[in-house]
Design goal:
The chain is an all-alpha fold and 96 residues long. The protein contains three helices and no strands. The protein has helices at 2-13, 18-35, 47-76.
Length: 96
């Protein structure tokens, strides 16, 4: 009896129709949105946040310096250029 009900349900709902697939896809999307991390609205900065921002500034400055050095090396290898001094300006993300 249990097997008969299973076969009956399978015939009724398999393969899924377009509306059932749409509901399934929207449910998955809803779960993904719910599970996504949410940013805090609090304006208070903890000591860890300040430390992380200071570290990120250091790494940004290191990155800028490395890019400038690489570009200087590449340009100095080009025939006919000679000695070069490179200064790059990076766009700010606006968040600190």
């Amino acid at each position: 009896m249990n097997r008969e009900k299973w076969n009956e349900l399978r015939k009724k709902y398999w393969p899924p129709r377009k509306d059932q697939l749409l509901i399934l896809a929207l449910s998955g999307l809803l779960l993904a949105v719910i599970a996504a991390p949410v940013q805090k609205d609090g304006g208070e900065e903890t000591a860890a946040d300040v430390e992380r921002s200071a570290e990120s500034e250091k790494t940004e400055e290191d990155y800028e310096r490395r890019v400038e050095q690489k570009l200087e090396e590449m340009l100095s290898q080009v025939e006919g250029i000679g000695e070069v001094c490179v200064m790059l300006t990076f766009a700010d993300s606006g968040q600190k």
